[in-house]
Amino acid sequence: MAKLKSTFKNMFLSLFIISVTVGLLLAQVNKMTAKPIADAKAMKLQNAIKEVVPAFDNDPVAEAYKMPDGQGDSLTVYPAKKGDEVVGFAVNSNSNNGFSGEIQIMVGFDMENKIVNYSVLQHAETPGLGAKMGEWFKDTAKPNQSVIGRDLSQGNLSVSKDGGNVDAITASTITSRAFLEAVNKAYAVYKASDADSGATKKEEAEKKGGENEQ
Question: What tens digit of pLDDT does each residue of 56-80 get?
Answer without folding.
Answer: 999 999 999 999 988 888 999 999 9
